[in-house]
Amino acid sequence: xxxxxxxxxxxxxxxxxxxxxxxxxxxxxxxxxxxxxxxxxxxxxxxxxxxxxxxxxxxxxxxxxxxxxxxxxxxxxxxxxxxxxxxxxxxxxxxxxxxxxxxxxxxxxxxxxxxxxxxxxxxxxxxxxxxxxxxxxxxxxxxxxxxxxxxxxxxxxxxxxxxxxxxxxxxxxxxxxxxxxxxxxxxxxxxxxxxxxxxxxxxxxxxxxxxxxxxxxxxxxxxxxxxxxxxxxxxxxxxxxxxxxxxxxxxxxxxxxxxxxxxxxxxxxxxxxxxxxxxxxxxxxxxxxxxxxxxxxxxxxxxxxxxxxxxxxxxxxxxxxxxxxxxxxxxxxxxxxxxxxxxxxxxxxxxxxxxxxxxxxxxxxxxxxxxxxxxxxxxxxxx
Length: 383
Description:
By secondary structure, the chain is of the alpha/beta class. The chain has helices spanning 2-11, 14-23, 42-45, 64-72, 89-98, 116-124, 144-152, 172-180, 185-188, 192-197, 199-211, 230-244, 266-271, 308-325, 340-361, 369-382; strands at residues 53-57, 80-84, 104-109, 134-138, 155-158, 219-224, 252-257, 276-283, 330-335. The radius of gyration is 22 Å and the shape is globular.
């Protein structure tokens, strides 16, 4: 077992993966650095910063990253952002009813420029979409969004064709929304160059992945105790599922929330099939809200004057103890700061780990052939 592990570590070294990323034809590696260039013009974007409400329309990787950032850093953002990433008529009608759409900025994102759901949702707002209040991000080719932008003289930002949606968080797709939020893109990438240079840290990440016997894993449970990370979980879920689930390989990433799912799914997780790995997300950022449980008598005395976060922390520690008892592999990710560099590190770490796992499974992390097949058939059924 030890010899196999050492052999695998040599074959999948952090240096090899970083070298491979930096030598690729796509521009993904370049986006990791604070001084990376964008296709959007800062001078022109400044004209759009006056809007206090922004509606982002997109699907999958075109929108999940920006939504994750907004949820994690909402305490620093003084604007209202609305995210539309599904076909939900009730949501559209609610948005129309609750917002003055003449005073809203629309940001429409689709790599292909022909994403069905993005086009349909944009059509709903078509009478409000104008040159003065709309930005479109898409590939600079003959597609619906690009042609629409040209016809209506709408500000158009080129989507790098070599970067897939789920890897685009550090490109224009993620960083233009960041700028509109009043944040600085370079702050998200502040610590990534040092992470890339820290070969020991990256090698340890690879060792931990290999020790979990990831080839036999069927389910990865993203168990989250940090509400601010909820939308980051959905970004992770897409990244892992779409990058690794192919050639009858991969595992199912499931998002669970603690402590809520202690009372529903935990029994299955702990006593069901032994085919799972846990990633536990926690925070020790103890807030002031306390419980006053004397009202319910001595039986609940253990809760009295405890902070809500302290109770949640105890539940998380109890789960980890049981995982150890049952020898279920897990990793804990502790959130100590809620700032740009922290979530930037998280994005990079999961991108790096996904590419590592793709090498272990011997799959291409950058394509999604079955997704494209469903898109093709959808078009056929609608024709």
